[in-house]
Amino acid sequence: MFSDKLEKSLNQQVKLESAASALYLSMASWCEKKKLNGAASFYYAQSEEERQHMLKVFKYINEMGGHAKVASVDQVDLDFENIRQVVQRSLESEKMVTASVHQLCEVAREEKDYGTLNFLQFYVDEQREEEVLFGNILDRIELIGLEGQGLYYIDKELEALAKQKIKTEGISTGGK
Ligand code: OFO
Question: Is this structure's pTM higher than 0.90?
Answer without folding.
Answer: yes
